[in-house]
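Expect chain and fold; see below:
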Amino acid sequence: MLYAFARPALFLLDPERAHRAMIAGLKRKPIRRAPDNARLETTIAGLHFPNPLGLAAGFDKDAEVPDALLGFGFGHVEVGSITPRPQVGNPRPRLFRLAQDGSVINRMGFNNGGARAAVERLTLRRQRGGIVGVNIGANKDSVDRVADYAAMARIVAPLASYIAVNISSPNTPGLRALQDASVLADLLDAVLDARGAQGPPVFLKVAPDLQPADIDAITRIAADKALGALIVSNTTIARPDLRSRDRGEAGGLSGAALKPLALERLRDFRKATGGAIPLVGVGGVASAEDAWERIRAGASLVQLYSAMVYGGPGLPRTILRGLDRLMRRDGFSSIAEAVGSE
């Protein structure tokens, strides 16, 4: 209710300024963990999640407030994307609310303060527990992007619950080419080697704009490398029918408009993997019904981000209450039992 009153004022601000204001506010928020619901607990990649709902990368790019965000009820928070060296990202404006469509377009370009600053923060919060994944990327001007990913894996492995390899952002030129089978296997070998044998699980974040042959190749490589999970999916460069003023802006589209494509791609990966690789469903998740649909379609975990812009910080707990209700309605005793049951 408080956010419903505050949102009109926030929406008067430039989206990026409003976001920074939210981060600043969260830094002052007392760190309290939401009570767990044992019915919603689940385990994937050797990690025990108090619930399947997570906050996707992009909200807390520099690992500034993961514990405050866990306090909203999220079962995990993914920080980043973080690159080896600081970079300013693309020119502003680069973040656009599509309020009529419940969506967002961004072309941020991996703006972040670099690995050193993030590691200092992650080290300070290490004893607080909770699942905090670290999403890693490459610098835009890097001459060897594979080396960037390997360096980041080595740096964050002691501090991350899992490492998410982001090669699917549309806002760094040429980055999505790393999804090609000819490159992907070598990149993952470098990341896994840098992470070390005792390091955290590695997740791979993929784009929704893939062809069937791409899905098959990625699935084959992910299985061969024993990845912890596939995150399906990042933002899209496609433009479905949109009504908002800024619908023509360049960048990645997320939120409600991405939902049909992200759900379709999740089902494609579920079919391709046969359930052998855990999937994380992302893109257009804004309600308990959305989250439940992803779980029934094959997602072991779900993530959201854009929905927080419109639903506010009370949204995670609302979704979790709804998930419990939907599980009871459909006769499931656990999240794992429901995965892929549609």
